[in-house]
Design goal:
This protein is α/β, with parallel strands linked by helices. It has helices spanning 12-25, 38-47, 54-67, 90-93, 95-102, 120-131, 138-160, 165-174, 188-191, 208-211, 220-226, 239-246, 256-271, 286-302, 318-338; strands spanning 3-6, 29-32, 73-75, 78-81, 109-110, 113-115, 200-205, 229-233, 276-282, 307-312. It contains 15 helices and 10 strands.
Length: 339
């Protein structure tokens, strides 16, 4: 059976259920890289140039990990755009080329171009071309693609119901979906009526590939829950909620993920549906530096919702992050008592 290696990094947290479904429907076996460790991160740092941001350094490490698993193909899509008139960070556009130029002796790389900003006809041709590697039957490829889209929709619905990507994907890998601990937002109307003793509502905003990798995020979700907080993430807010928040901007942001984060932050600030917000960015990320600055300035100006701004890189220490989280949670509790 043909094996397809998928790095457990970057867009894995956004689209893996769809990718897995597509390749398995075509008769291939999907192989994931191991969960992030210090060795995986260090191997990526050694390959990357100095200006590379943390998520891409980590991606290189996961590619190196897959290289050692004797896979037949490596799947690294070139994702330009996933929405009309919006684009992803340039690192996603050049990812296949960067990997091929920086790393040697790799298995053949499948780099499907995904650019929704253009007409769909060309995209479907690329899907059929990719499918030909596994089956000569274009109908089988079309069915696999349709099922993959359905699987992606189901995944996104689960995130809206209260799962984090990390929790859902781990449960999926283990063969069973566990019941989420707390359905934070099944209905805004009932949110204030719920009685959750001594529980804070903390929004944790940032790129899914930073927050849901428990190694580089230092398991921030678990730390906050251990401190008595319920977690809300960007994925738990609907697109209409995010767009409503982003409508406060004077100009559109053309980075899809950056717009999602800033839209979520502004929406939560307007609605006052959480007790505090933790914003996590990665050092060396251009879009993060702009989006983070805009969010921080707005929160400081309005002074109605506490904000903790965390910047992560490969040198971040767990003790320092834990201390800042503890101080923030204490401040939020004090803020609630005096409100």
């Amino acid at each position: 059976m043909t094996t397809i290696g998928i790095p457990r990094s970057l867009l894995y947290y956004n689209y893996f259920p769809a990718w897995k479904c597509f390749f398995e429907e075509l008769g291939a076996e999907v192989v994931l890289s191991d969960k992030t460790t210090k060795n995986i991160l260090d191997s990526g740092v050694k390959v990357a140039v100095d200006e590379t941001c943390l998520p891409v350094k980590l991606f290189y490490g996961h590619v190196q990990n897959l290289k050692e698993k004797n896979i037949d193909y490596l799947f690294i899509p070139r994702v330009v755009s996933v929405e009309k008139k919006e684009y992803l960070c340039p690192k996603f556009l050049g990812l296949p080329n960067m990997v091929l130029n920086l790393m040697k002796d790799l298995p053949p790389v499948l780099h499907l171009d995904i650019d929704i900003s253009k007409k769909n006809k060309g995209f479907y041709r690329k899907i059929y071309k990719l499918g030909k590697l596994f089956t000569p039957n274009p109908l089988k490829t079309a069915v696999a693609f349709k099922k993959a889209l359905k699987k992606l929709s189901e995944y996104q619905q689960q995130l809206l119901m209260g799962y984090t990507p990390m929790e859902y994907l781990d449960s999926l890998e283990n063969g069973s979906i566990s019941k989420q601990k707390y359905d934070f937002k099944d209905s805004k109307k009932n949110l204030d009526k719920r009685e959750v003793p001594q529980k804070l509502k903390i929004a944790v905003l940032g790129h899914s590939y930073n927050l849901n990798d428990s190694y580089i995020s230092m398991d921030i979700y678990k730390k906050l829950r251990d401190m008595g907080a319920n977690i809300l993430t960007t994925e738990m807010l609907s697109q209409s909620d995010q767009e409503k928040g982003a409508s406060n901007l004077k100009k559109d942001i053309f980075w899809t993920f950056g717009k999602d984060i800033i839209g979520s932050a502004y929406y939560l600030l307007d609605q006052q549906m959480v007790d505090g917000v933790v914003l996590v960015v990665s050092f060396g990320c251009g879009p993060d530096s702009l989006v983070g600055e805009m969010i921080e300035r707005t929160f400081k100006r309005k002074r109605t919702l506490p904000l903790l701004f965390l910047t992560l890189d490969e040198h971040s220490g767990e003790a320092g992050v834990l201390t800042r989280l503890e101080a923030f949670v204490d401040m939020v509790r004090l803020n609630k008592k005096t409100a």
